[in-house]
Specification:
The protein has 418 residues and is α/β, with parallel strands linked by helices. It folds into two domains: 214 residues, Aldehyde Dehydrogenase, Chain A, domain 1 (3-Layer(aba) Sandwich), CATH 3.40.605.10; 181 residues, Aldehyde Dehydrogenase, Chain A, domain 2 (3-Layer(aba) Sandwich), CATH 3.40.309. 38% of the residues lie in helices and 20% in strands. It contains twelve helices and 18 strands. It has a seven-stranded mixed beta sheet, sandwiched between helices. Helix 8 crosses helix 9. The chain is globular and about 75 Å long. It comes from Poecile atricapillus (Black-capped chickadee).
Length: 418
């Protein structure tokens, strides 16, 4: 009950300070202020959710096979949890993990991304104000040069019982190797390569709206944003035409603090270079730039929202996660072909498709090799729903009623001699 009350107060303080918290995010990673405000509300919702779940950690009484025994199952906190978070959602990726950990009774050491330490520290200040005891929520900011060393210490120190990481698959594999030495519990939310399939039966206007939201949120820098568009031949041309018009009309590149901005800068020069590399490779193999295609006139890390057509599965942009404002469109003919292309990746975080055929909806939803499926929806993240992937996209689930289990050990107690 005490944990629940403190988490609830932390949630209330986030709402009271939502404007300041949002401005910190925009200042740190360039996210448009409206999106940053949305992230703070999403972020706070995890503290509210897990404040409620803290009082619902139920054990079991199991019927025993012998008359003189009673069999119990207890759930207990795993212990110290190391939380390693990314820059693209510097507040929400902390509360989604920390809310569950504290609700379960664990203490945490948060290592925020080197690009966005201030959001983590701001949450720490509010945790103090909420009465979270000293030593329960700890933040260890560090430089880019020290990141690998700090990560290794958190993963190898025997005092740490649990690792929760959100970031790239490559980094996740390194952390898994470190954690294996002491057989730590791990949760990994790693890279994605989300397909977005539009079938001939789809409502094209709704598909375009969903595509715009899924692809260009945070300038394409989200782990669940679409990376590959697969559009059936019957509606391909109509979709591409309407998608291009929507991009040109509704997206505005600019300073995140400007009210009309929908697309802020990319996080750094390296991110811009990757988008350029993917576009150059695709065009060299026959892809066409429908709109965008180059750095924005604002300069530095700003890039034009880009749409490519005549894309094939041999191009880099359909083999790697771009993590930028690039939408490549592949034309396909049959449902089986689309599912095969979608499932060809070695990762499987999110997947999306648009269809109005009920039988097709069931078939494709079950066949897609991803942890989360959006059917006729481009934005699917929600505090009530389990977030996580399959294959090399990770281990475990966050949020929802399942999220707290990641921070609990199950203990079996056999009470004999009765």
């Amino acid at each position: 009950q005490e944990r629940s009350a403190r988490l609830r107060r932390w949630y209330e303080l986030m709402l009271e300070n939502k404007e300041e918290l949002a401005r910190i995010i925009t200042a740190e990673n360039g996210k448009p202020l409206k999106e940053a405000q949305g992230e703070i509300m999403y972020s706070a919702s995890f503290l509210e959710w897990f404040a409620e779940e803290a009082r619902r950690i139920y054990g079991d009484v199991i019927p025993a096979s012998a008359k003189d025994r009673r069999v119990l199952v207890l759930k207990q906190p795993v212990g110290v949890a190391a939380i390693i978070t990314p820059w693209n959602f510097p507040s929400a990726m902390i509360t989604r993990k920390v809310g569950a950990a504290l609700a379960a009774g664990c203490t945490v050491v948060v290592k925020p991304a080197e690009d966005t330490p201030l959001s983590a520290l701001a949450l720490g200040e509010l945790a103090n104000q909420a009465g979270i005891p000293a030593g329960v929520y700890n933040v260890v900011p560090c430089s880019r040069q020290q990141t690998a060393a700090v990560g290794e210490v958190l993963c190898t120190d025997p005092l740490v019982s649990k690792i929760s990481f959100t970031g790239s698959t490559a980094t996740g594999k390194i952390l898994l190797k470190h954690a294996a030495g002491t057989v730590k519990r791990v949760s990994m939310e790693l890279g994605g390569h989300a397909p977005f399939i539009v079938f001939d039966s789809a409502n094209v206007d709704r598909a375009v709206a969903g595509a715009l939201a899924s692809k260009y949120r945070n300038s394409g820098q989200t782990c669940v944003c679409t990376n590959r568009f697969l559009v059936q031949k019957g509606i391909h041309d109509e979709f591409v035409e309407k998608f291009a018009k929507a991009i040109e009309k509704e997206l505005h590149v600019g300073n995140g603090f400007d009210a009309k901005t929908t697309q802020g800068p990319l996080i750094n020069e390296k991110a811009v270079e990757k988008v350029e590399k993917h576009i150059k490779d695709a065009v060299s193999q026959g892809a066409s730039v429908v709109t965008g295609g180059k750095r924005h006139s604002l300069g530095k890390n700003f890039f034009e929202p880009t749409l490519l057509s005549n894309v094939t599965t041999k191009m880099l942009c359909t083999q790697e996660e771009t993590f930028g404002p690039l939408a490549p469109v592949i034309r396909f003919e049959t449902e089986a072909e689309a599912v095969a292309i979608a499932n060809a990746a070695n990762v499987g975080l999110a997947g999306y498709f648009y269809s109005q055929d009920p039988a097709q909806i069931w078939r494709v939803a079950e066949q897609l090799e991803v942890g989360m499926v959006g059917v006729n929806e481009g934005i699917i993240s929600s505090v009530e729903c389990p977030f996580g992937g399959v294959k090399e996209s990770g281990l475990g689930r966050e949020g929802s009623k399942y999220g707290i289990d990641e921070y609990l050990e199950i203990k079996y107690v056999c009470l004999g001699g009765l």
